[in-house]
Amino acid sequence: MPAVAAAQSLEIRAEQAKATIGDPISFELTVRLRPGNELIDVYPRTLVQPPKGIRVLSADTLRPAGNGVYRGKARMAFYRVGPQPVPTLALLYRAAAGEPPDTLLHMPVSIEITPI
Exposed e or buried b for every residue in 33-60, given b needs 16+ CB within 10 A? Predict the structure, then answer.
């Protein structure tokens, strides 16, 4: 039976499950592309403006790690207590040279913010 190629993906994972209000939180970003795919953006951006109480502090330029994998980090701060949604990050890629761009998004992620 032939192997099925994995779809392209953008994954985001918090380096910690909980944080105190206002503390910077680092997130690991991993992009996986199929052979022949081309990453157009190497700098992740938010899909929409983050809601009040959430601030994106920085995002690394994604670095190739081999075999269509790119890695980087983003840092965010949250100013509301309780479970908070992580802003959706987006990257443009192409399925093949000359093809129109498409957008990679990650699955919804949340983090627990505790008071000081």
Answer: beeebebebeebebeeebeeebebeebe
